[in-house]
Amino acid sequence: MATEVFVYSVSADGEPSDAYVRVATVEDLSTLGTVRTGGVTLYRKDSVTIDYSDIDEAINTKSGIVTRIDLLVREYTDFTDSFVASENLSLPV
């Protein structure tokens, strides 16, 4: 599984101003890239820094992010475990 699980929104002011949006979904892992160039509006990074106004907000937000990452790992594992591929493909002529 990719380590870039934090989704950011591209800012016109440059990468330091890009905003953290959310923890990625399984779909994001295949649809969002890891570079912010090329006209993309969202991309993934492997780290996030969040500033909090108080300790309670920090604890609650951290807990939510950890829960969301745990869910992503479970969903990704379920997805890859249930993926069925066929080596034979028959098409009508």
Give a short overview.
By secondary structure, the protein is α+β, with helices and mostly antiparallel strands. It is 37% helix and 14% strand.
Walk me through what this model shows.
The protein is of the alpha+beta class and 93 residues long. Helix content is 37%, strand content 14%. It has helices spanning 26-31, 55-82; strands at residues 6-9, 19-23, 42-45. Strands 2-1-3 form a 3-stranded antiparallel beta sheet. The radius of gyration is 17 Å and the shape is flat. The mean pLDDT is 92.
Could you name the key traits of this structure?
single chain, 93 residues, alpha+beta, 3-stranded antiparallel β-sheet, 2 helices, 37% helix, 14% strand, flat
Topology record:
Elements: E1 6-9, E2 19-23, H1 26-31, E3 42-45, H2 55-82
Antiparallel strand pairs: 1-2, 1-3
- Ranges where pLDDT stays below 50 over 5 or more residues in a row are none
Main pleated-sheet profile: 3 strands, antiparallel
Mean pLDDT: 92
Strand numbers in spatial order across the main sheet:
2-1-3
Cα distance spanning the termini: 38 Å
- Strand segment tally: 3
- Proportion of residues in helical segments: 25-40%
Structural class of the secondary structure composition?
alpha+beta
SSE pattern: EEHEH
Helices, by number, come to 2
Radius of gyration based on Cα positions: 17 Å
Strand fraction = 5-15%
Outline? flat
